[in-house]
Amino acid sequence: MFSMLQGIPQETLIDILKHQTTIHSIDFSGLSFENEDFSGKTFIGCRFSNVSFTGVKMDRCRCRMCFFEFSAFTASSFTETDIQFSSFAGVRISGCTFAGSDLLNNNFNGITSFDTSFNDSDLYNSRFIMASLADTSFQNCNLKKTMFMQTPRSNVSFKSSNTREALFGKGENPE
Amino acid sequence: MKIYYHFSREGFSNGYLVGNEKTGKAIVIDPGVMNRELLAHIEQNRYQLEAVLVTHNHASHHNGLKTLLKIYSPKVYAADAELNGRKTTMLQGDGSFSAAGFTVRYFSVPGHSPDSLMFQIEQVLFTGDALSAGRLGETNNVYGKRNLLTHLKNKLMTLSDDLILLPGHGPPTTIGAERMYNCELSRDRIETETAAVERLTGLRQMHQCI
C-alpha cells in the first residue's frame, strides 16, 4: 500500500512514530532521530529520505514499500526485521546490525557500509549495485539473485552464504 | 491512491494494483499471475476494476490476464493490438488517458521489446522491464540498447528526483537514485573506485569519533 501523506508538522510526526504501532503512508523525510526505540513497529508505504538515525533501535520492525534513500544509519540496530520491497539507495551505514533479518527485494544500491552485519539474513533478490562495503559481513545469508556489481569491497565476509547463486560483476570474485 | 505490490513466483515479476479511494475504482498493472492474493485485494477493498495496463507483451507480465478477464471486465491498455487473443486499446508514442479517476501518462520506450511502455500515475512511474533498480532493461542488440537509452534519457531523466519507480522486476527505486547509481543511464556521473574508497575512509573516521 502506498499513498503519501505530506506536510504534517514535525511534532505530530514524532508523536505518530512514538505512539502508533502500525504506520501507513507518512513522509518522515529530513528528520533526525537519536537513541529512540521503534522496535516492533510496522511501516507501510512510508518515506524516510535524508533521515538521520543515530543509536536507534528498530528491531523486529516490519517494512513494506518504504523509502530510506540517502539517509544515515549510525550505531543503530535492525535485528530480526522483516523489510521487503523497500529502497535504501545511497544510505550511509556505520556500526549497524541487520542480523537475522528478512531483507527480500530491497534496493541497497550505492550504500556505503562500514562495520555492519547482515549475518543470518535472507537477502533474496536484493541489489547492492555500486555500493561500497568495508568490514561488513554477510555470513550464513541467502544471497539467491542478490546482485553485487561494481561494488568495491574490503574485509567483506560471505562465509557460509550461497555466493554461487548471487550475481557478481564481471571479474568480481566473492572472496 | 493506494498501491498493492504483487510478486509473481512464476516469472519473478512484479504486478501492481492501484486503487482510487475516492472513486472506488482500480487499475491492475502487469498481471503476471492472477491468484487469490490479488483477488482478495480487489474484493476486500470493493474495487471496481476499470483498467489493466500491460507494459509489454512478455508472458511474465500478462499471464494472469486471461483469468482476470473471466472475473472482471476491465479495458486492457497495451502497445500491442492483441494480448493472449484479446483485443486491447492500443497505445502508441506518448500521451495520456483517464482510468479509475486517475490521469495515466504513458511513454513509449522501445528497446527491451518494441512495444515497451511506462505508465505514470501521480508521483509513481511503472517502468516495466525498460528499467530496474541500477540496471537497464535487457536488450537483444546494441541498437536496441542505444534506442532504449535515448528514450530513457529524454523521457525519464527529465522528471523529478522524488518520482518513485516501480519496476517489472526487482526492488523499487526513485529517479534520484537512478541518476546516482545506474551507471548505464548516467555514465558521465560514474563514481570512480577512488571516490568510493574516499567515502569509506570518511565513514571510518566518523565511526572512530563516535
List the helices and strands and how they pair.
The complex is a heterodimer of chains A (175) and B (210).
Chain A (H helix, E strand, L loop, with lengths): L9 H10 L2 E3 L7 E3 L7 E3 L7 E3 L7 E3 L7 E3 L7 E3 L7 E3 L17 E6 L14 E6 L9 E2 L4 E2 L12 E2 L7
Parallel strand pairs in A: 1-3, 2-4, 3-5, 4-6, 5-7, 6-8, 8-9, 9-10, 10-12, 11-13
Chain B lengths: L1 E7 L4 E8 L4 E5 L6 H9 L3 E6 L5 H4 L2 H7 L3 E4 L3 E2 L2 E2 L1 E2 L4 E5 L2 E7 L8 E5 L2 E5 L2 E2 L2 E2 L5 H14 L8 E4 L5 E2 H7 L11 H17 L1
Parallel strand pairs in B: 3-4, 4-5, 5-8, 12-15
Antiparallel strand pairs in B: 1-2, 2-3, 6-7, 9-10, 10-11, 11-12, 13-14, 15-16
Task: Give an overview of the whole structure.
The complex is a heterodimer of chains A (175) and B (210). By secondary structure, chain A is mainly β. Chain A contains one helix and 13 strands; from the N terminus they run H-E-E-E-E-E-E-E-E-E-E-E-E-E. In chain A, the strands form three sheets. Chain A has a seven-stranded parallel sheet, with no helix packed on it. A four-stranded parallel sheet of chain A has the order 1-3-5-7, with no helix packed on it. Chain A has a two-stranded parallel sheet with strand order 11-13. Chain A starts with 9 loop residues before the first helix and ends in a 7-residue tail after the last strand. The mean pLDDT of chain A is 92. Chain B has 210 residues and is an alpha/beta fold. Chain B has a single domain (2-209), classed as Metallo-beta-lactamase, Chain A, CATH 3.60.15. Chain B has helices at residues 36-44, 59-62, 65-71, 142-155, 175-181, 193-209, and strands spanning 2-8, 13-20, 25-29, 48-53, 75-78, 82-83, 86-87, 89-90, 95-99, 102-108, 117-121, 124-128, 131-132, 135-136, 164-167, 173-174. In chain B, the strands form four sheets. Chain B has a six-stranded mixed sheet, with helices on one face. In chain B, strands 9-10-11-12-15-16 form a six-stranded mixed sheet. A two-stranded antiparallel sheet of chain B has the order 6-7. In chain B, strand 6 and strand 7 (86-87) form a beta hairpin. The model of chain B has no long low-confidence stretch (mean pLDDT 88). The A-B interface holds A 1-4, 45, 64-65, 67, 69-70, 74-75, 85-87, 89-90, 92, 94-95, 105-107, 109-110, 112, 114-115, 125-127, 129-130, 132, 134, 145, 147, 149-150, 152, 154 and B 1-5, 7, 12, 21, 123-124, 133-135, 164, 170-174, 176-177, 180-183, 191, 193, 196-197, 199-200, 203-204, 206-207, 210.
